[in-house]
Amino acid sequence: DNQIVKFLIARKFELPKVFEMIEKNLAWIADYKPSADEFFPPDIAAEYPVGYSDCHDLDGNCIYVEKSGNMGFISPKKFINKHGVPTIVRWHIAGNEMGKRRIAASPTATRITAIVDMSNLGESDSNVMKFAKGISAIDQDNYPEHLSRMLLINAPGRFSGLWKVIRIFLDSRTREKV
After folding, report:
1. Do residues 138 and 25 touch, judged by C-beta distance below 8 A?
2. CA–CA separation, 105 vs 96, rounded Å?
3. Which residues, 6 or more positions from 144, have their beta carbon under 8 angstroms from its beta carbon?
4. Lowest-confidence pick of 71-80, 99-108, 121-130
């Protein structure tokens, strides 16, 4: 199973750690009940467009595109303050679940390549940092090896300072993919 292999890779084939990770993941699934079919208010997608293209990268992986700040329509700070961290985290998880569905349906994909356009990122605050920390922990614990690579484009100059903070919460293998 592709998912089991990802857990093995994430824990460097150390079986006790793999079993612990899988047990925690199964408990999280039972408690959180992640779904690709969860309903969210329509303005979330209109304000912060994300989604999968029908294309694949050169390795055959699914491509996910995100436009932070919707090209200036709403800043991530305003978006998070409007919808709240818990709702946006669930929205992010629904996107991961859709990615798992697309990987399963693809004859070539084993992971996701993410392209994040950071134009008009806007100002940052503690809620943006809470969101970044929250999703990085959830992704690493429950979607190991889901990411093939992440391309950050149009990053503002101040992003390098923010990246120094975010990267602390990522394991070294994930940091190398960005």
Report:
1. no
2. 14
3. 6, 7, 9, 10, 11, 21
4. 121-130
Bridge-based pairing of strands 50-56 and 147-153 is unpaired
Residues 6 or more apart from 85 whose CB is under 8 A from it? Answer: 127, 130, 131, 134
CA-to-CA separations, 89 to 61, 106, 133, in angstroms, rounded: 23, 26, 10
Percent of the chain with pLDDT over 90: 47
Tokens matching residue 36: 């690709």
Confirm if 80 and 86 have CB atoms less than 8 A apart: no
* Model confidence at 134: pLDDT above 90: no
In 3-state terms, what secondary structure has residue 39?
coil
